[in-house]
Amino acid sequence: MGVAAQTMKSWIELLEKRYLVFLLLPYSSRLSRSIRKDRRIFFYDCAAAYDATGGATLENLVACSMLKFTQFRSDAFRENWELFYLRDRDEREVDFVVTRDQRVEWLIEVKASDDRVGTSLRRYHKKLQPSQSLQLVLNLDQRQEREGIKIVPLGPRLAALPYDPPESVSS
What we know:
Strand order of the largest sheet: 3-4-5-6-8-7
Shape: globular
Oligomer: single chain
Strand content: 25-35%
Helix content: 25-40%
């Protein structure tokens, strides 16, 4: 981008202080390791996360919902819920990791239409043994379960929201 890293960091901090964006730390069982890794940025206003495929908008919507859930449980019930993402050295990624008292409760992957369980979700479902692993799919007719991972239609839950995926862009 042609901008110094420190300048970019200060811009992001400004956006965060103005409650325009929030950052997710990567999940790691060791705090020192997660602090040094890149954070993922999400917008409080889901429309600001627009992309041509609609994937970033959908993922941002789920991020906002999960952030609200974890903050509500922490504030209302004094429970220690936290929201992270997971990416390892080999670039395997799970969109969201939700912990309670530092134990992995949920692994969540968000897809627009793919009902095949992702290899990263499958791998970390086995490795971390969360209470539940979910693949939330916008365009899915019915619930499924494969290898202990629930594949859940996200569409009916979003029907009341004004979300229109962009039409595919022709080249």
